[in-house]
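Lecture notes, part 5. Sequence design as translation. It can be helpful to think of inverse folding as translation between two languages: the language of shapes and the language of residues. The source text, in structure tokens, appears below.
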């Protein structure tokens, strides 16, 4: 992502869709201190099966908390 870190992308997405479940995938050992500690993290490299399990768990947590929102395209 040019000119943006994963943490910055997460902040931008949360500003627009605060209920959307997110996952950060990173190759860095240290993450920004202000990153949500509840946010699921995948350390690169990761296997496809781990990605699938992490997505499933994130969606399940969102469903259990009834925070699933319909994705809408941004206009403009």
């Amino acid at each position: 992502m040019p000119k943006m870190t994963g943490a910055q992308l997460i902040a931008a997405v949360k500003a627009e869709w605060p209920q959307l479940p997110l996952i950060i995938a990173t190759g860095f050992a240290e993450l920004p201190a202000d990153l949500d500690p509840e946010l699921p993290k995948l350390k690169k490299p990761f296997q496809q099966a781990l990605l699938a399990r992490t997505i499933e768990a994130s969606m399940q947590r969102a469903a259990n908390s009834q925070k699933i929102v319909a994705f809408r395209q941004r206009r403009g």
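The translated text above is only one of many valid answers, since several sequences can fold into similar shapes. Residues 48-64 form the longest helix (17 residues).
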